[in-house]
Amino acid sequence: MKFNKLQERIKMGILADFREVIKELKHKKRGEATINRCPKCGSPNIMISSGFGTYPRMYGITPRKYVCAECGYNGPIVMEQTKEENG
Hints:
elongated; 2 domains; alpha+beta; 3 helices; two-stranded antiparallel ribbon; 3-stranded antiparallel β-sheet
């Protein structure tokens, strides 16, 4: 019986987190322009890395990799900044 209650609490927590994500996505304006920035130095001079593995990335098998021309960051994460946040 205790296991079922724990399982139910976990499900409710996951649902609450999911609802929060959906709520934030609804607030984000459709088609709103964003600028990608490097997570290490904040530079907007960051691009998708090219090279081998293009086809696996196209089909979502491997994540995109970004390269920053300013600091040399190389990784799958970028920061997105909206024009409102940019000023």
